[in-house]
Amino acid sequence: MALKKVCVVGGGLGGMSCALDLASKGYSVTLLEKGRVLGGKASNVNVGDFSFDPGPSILILKTIYEKQFKDAGFILDDYITFTELDPIFRIHTYEKYYDFPAGLEKNLQFIRQSFPEDYNAYKKIMESCESAYKATLETVFKHDIKSVLSMANKNFLRASSLVGPYDSIVERVFKNPILKAFFYDFPGYGGKKFTQPSPEAFMIPYIMVKYGVFYPKGGVSKIIEAYEAVLKLLGVEIRTGTELLAIEKEGKKIKKVVTNKGDFYADYFVSNIDYATLQTKYLKHINNSPSKNLIKTPSHSYFSLQIGVSEKPKILLHHNLLLNTEYREQYSQVHLKRQIPKNPTVYINAPEDRQNLFFVVSSPAIENGIDWKNFETKMKPYVFDLIKQYDIKINPDSIKAIRKQTPLYFDNEHNNYLGGLFGATDDKILFNLFNPITVDKRIKNLYYAGATVQPGAGLPMAALSGRFAAKNILSSN
């Protein structure tokens, strides 16, 4: 019997994950990527003598990658050397800093000592997260959520205290402004607003504490390198420098994709392109009801400054959060007023094995009234002024390399819709909780992967999305 052919468009981790599962099952897979390397925002970028991870920097849920490699007949540890971090990160305030320890018992002791007024509430949240995590393993991490019945699970009921407007829960259960500001930031990591239901936002710190935060020696891009090595062993045809130009449909199926390197035909097509970009740029003209695909506004984004230095500030750990306790004002500026925040929380990544500093600030995407080209010229003094408030100083003479990213970069280089990093807007989120599913409802041989479809943003979720897409293709035969 002839091998089924699959064409995966977009070589980020979601596309690579899907290609891995299908190739390990005997499918003939071609992986197309418009960049010079695979990995998308998780790929490595060299500037002078410095090597940067330009996107993800927190690595959690290592078991997701381990299981996928094992299912395909490989061992992840043969390709990557991991270090588990403890403390997980350092929380900086204007007055002092707090080291957030790994391990649930140690973490609870830290909360009792540092924020005694919130110990009981924090412990209860962690207990609710335990039930929610069990439910997630049995549902959200196994398949797309297509209906209410897809979520049927007794552990969801036990975790019902996490369901509701996120800000209302935080305001109700916590008293200390530092803990409030700490929890405030987590919905944004998944593309949610602070006012939306976001039970998974509580689970991120729980997963970090309970199951660990890891660092691959040499950088997060080592995950990408490991996947690429295995894909080559499985015979996946990898075409970098191959940009999607058009999609041609025949009947209810895609016939071929047109690229700058020629046309590609297949039995199945998988898009690892930002969902909103694919709908508005490539599919609108071939669907019968293009109005259904209209994306009203982009999700939020971030801007970042990366510098290579000869000397790192000693006050920084691997992961750092510079907390502004005026979190509601920051939320209003980014999500309501659609402005560059004036005094936001700042994330700083300072890996131990490299002389790199990575500063990240949440922001709107490409909006009327924001001149991102002009702001890029002001980004360095903007960031340096922010960190000075936390007594973090960088000697200008120690800076040897510099790199900047704004929503314009994400739009141009990574096809993120108007520079938004999380794809679907509120009207595209199922039950106000879940991104679009990985199966196209109108085109029979089109599937989706990546951070803008289920189960959501982040490297482990992108890997799962690729597995979901592959599972749906396998079940269609």
From TrEMBL:
The keyword Oxidoreductase applies. Residues 13-292 form the Amine oxidase domain. Pathway: Carotenoid biosynthesis. PROSITE patterns: PROKAR_LIPOPROTEIN. GO terms for biological process: carotenoid biosynthetic process. It comes from the Bacteria. Gene3D superfamilies: FAD/NAD(P)-binding domain (3.50.50.60). Keywords: Carotenoid biosynthesis, Oxidoreductase. Pfam families: Amino_oxidase (PF01593). One of its GO terms (molecular function) is oxidoreductase activity. InterPro entries: Amino_oxidase, Carotenoid/retinoid_OxRdtase, FAD/NAD-bd_sf. The keyword Oxidoreductase applies. Transmembrane segments: none annotated. Belongs to the carotenoid/retinoid oxidoreductase family. This is NAD(P)/FAD-dependent oxidoreductase. The lineage of its organism: Bacteria, Katanobacteria.
